[in-house]
Amino acid sequence: MKVSDILRVKGGTLYTVSPEQPLAEALQTMAGRDIGSLVVMSHGELIGMLTFREVINAIVANGGSVGIVTIGTVMDDAPLTCTPETEIDEVRRMMLQRHARYMPVMDRKTLMGVISFYDVAKAVVDSQDFENRMLKAYIRDWPVESGEESSETERAPRL
Fold first, then answer.
1. Where is 116: in which H helix or E strand?
2. Residue 50: which residues within 8 A CB-CB, separation 6 or more?
3. In the Cβ-directed half-sphere of 105, how many Cα atoms lie within 13 Å?
4. What is the C-alpha separation between 47 and 108, in angstroms, rounded?
């Protein structure tokens, strides 16, 4: 499974901000949209990510208030990225290694979307559920060879 599979299911809604915007404005967007991250763009290019981690660190550093801080001063300016062709197992490993909860998906210089650790976990669970259903269906429909008994009770060992 690839990142493109997650994006196809998730959809392409993106929320971006500029580094000059006040952090308070970003917080209103995040709270109002119920999202945990914003992509920071400048002149059409990804330059950072703003997540709740950066927000909390900024508030703590500012004595418990948002103040007049701008997004550019608190954002992660070296976010972890992947491509639509990146395998989910690789994304999972990268996110765990960097403790990243959100990852922009880039196709060269074009932002394709953002996936979250939740999106990755959901995709893995959905895939495993599908495999389990297929295996159970396969076992249930296991062909009976000639000479074998056909019912479940008849297959049980006799005592």
1. strand 110-116
2. 17, 23, 26, 37, 38, 40, 71, 74, 75, 76
3. 27
4. 14
When mean pLDDT is compared across 52-61, 102-111, 135-144, the lowest value belongs to: 135-144
Alpha carbons within 13 A on the beta-carbon side of 1: 21
Residues 119/6, Cβ–Cβ less than 8 Å: yes
Domains and CATH numbers, the chain: 3-126 (3.10.580.10)
- 97 residue type, one letter: Q
What confidence tens digit (pLDDT) does each residue in 116-148 have? 999 999 888 887 777 777 778 778 776 667 655
Comparing CA positions, the residue from 2, 3, 1 lying closest to residue 104 is 3
